[in-house]
Amino acid sequence: MRTLEHIDPMNPVYSQGELMPKVSVEIPHELLEDLNRHVGDDKKFVNQSDAIRTAIRKMLDMMDEIDKRHGRIKER
Q1: How far apart (Å, rounded) are the C-alpha atoms in residues 20 and 33?
Q2: Full-model pTM
Q3: Residues 69, 63: contact at Cβ < 8 Å?
Q4: At what angle are helices 48-69 and 29-36 packed, to 10 degrees?
Q5: Can you count the helices (H) and strands (E) in the chain?
Q6: Contact criterion met (CB below 8 Å) for 51 and 45
């Protein structure tokens, strides 16, 4: 678990009681527009960070499945 010493103490980021580092990315404008169509009240994601975290988790799960099929990692 990260502590306040690891990030800017003036701008801690909490999620489910845990500190998370802040990451900056550059993405094409068209991709951001598409992402934002799914973010907001009564939409799938509450904010851009939620959408991006979900996309990363899904991609990593897919990569793990591919690695399992190719024998690169063992099933848990």
Answers
A1: 25
A2: 0.68
A3: no
A4: 100
A5: 2, 2
A6: yes
Q: Are 14 and 2 in contact (CB under 8 A)?
A: no
Structural tokens at position 68: 């399992």
Helices (H), 1-76: 29-36, 48-69
Task: Give the residue from 49, 38, 42 showing the smallest Cα distance to 15.
Answer: 49
4: Cβ contacts below 8 Å, ≥ 6 apart: 12, 19
Residues 20-47: tens digit of each pLDDT: 888 899 999 999 999 999 999 999 999 9
Residue type, 53: R
